[in-house]
Amino acid sequence: MLSSSMAPIDLAVLLLVNLTWGFNYVAVKIGVTAFPPVFLAGIRFCLLALMLAPLLRVSRASLPAVAAVGLTSGLLHFGLLFVGMRMADDISSVAIAIQLGVPFATILSVVLLKETIRWRRIGGIVLAFAGVVVIGFDPRVFGYLDGLLLCVGAAFCMALGMIVMRRLRGVGVFTLQGWIGLVAGPPLLVLSLLVEDGQGAAAAAAAPIAWAALAFTIFGASLIGHAGNYWLLQRHPVSLIAPLTLLAPILGVVFGVTLLHDQLTWRILIGGTMTLVGVGVILWRDRVPAETAQTT
Predict the structure, then answer these.
(1) Is residue 205 in a domain?
(2) In angstroms, how far is CA 257 from the centroid of its own chain?
């Protein structure tokens, strides 16, 4: 039986997951600054698919759903997210905005799955979106509002993938990660060839820190982060683990300020608090799969 009490090893793994996902915002920002963003996303997923190739066996019945997850949570989500992060001056606002995937998923569950939600989760949805609106009206953020909106669009695409994931059965976390890489990686590279240029020059000129950032997005966020989160979900209820993973965007903001010198304004602080509280209310009342709640 799953226990709601957490042993020291559980707390250590939970902290590692949050640290990994929080730092990943920094890694992605470094990566998209050095490489064309769609090209970077394509390389990431192709390498991920190669690494997890031995685990790509799924039943024929699961293939359409797995492919849909790869399209929405892989190609569309990360394509928009990486371009948005390239355009954004700070990662703090992005780390907050991407959490809208949870309220988007809750809304879609009502529209598409005919689920019923009560007033607390409705209030959480309103609060979460209101927080991003507050951030969007910040004068500094207004300068890259198009990038922030792309990240909101990325959150919506992830929410679509989360709806499909709710119906997946018998597909392991690494198998799903591998299929997302296989479905998303090659099309992203083709798209990069069509809409971007300078890929070869960027790869030749990239500093070791840029390649290290790419490696971290694969080994840190996709493998260590998801593996640790999946391990926790085997031992504790989703309703306990999911709200605790909200430490990741908070750490993302902290890392952005301390490592990338992001500027925190009162609008970002207030709006970010509103969004995270709203998402926390939804997660506490819902049963969104926690392994899909973080995206980068």
Answers:
(1) yes
(2) 20
What integer is the mean pLDDT of 147-169? 89
Q: How far apart are CA 120 and CA 110, in angstroms?
A: 15
pLDDT digits (tens, 9 = 90+) for 45-71: 999 999 999 999 888 888 999 999 999
Tokens of 99: 């959490």
Query: What is the spatial distance between Cα 288 and Cα 242, in angstroms, rounded to a whole number?
Result: 8
Residue 296 belongs to a domain: no
In the chain, the number of structural domains is 1
Position 245 confidence tier, pLDDT thresholds 50, 70, 90: confident
pLDDT at position 180 over 80: yes
Domain of 128 in residue numbering reads as 8-291
Is 112 inside a domain boundary? Answer: yes
Distance CA 81, CA 151 (A): 5
C-beta separation of 158 from 72 below 8 A: yes
3-state class (DSSP) for residue 57: coil
Q: Is 225 contained in some domain?
A: yes
Other CB atoms within 10 A of residue 216 CB = 20
Q: Which has the closest alpha carbon to 54: 144, 175, 150, 222?
A: 175
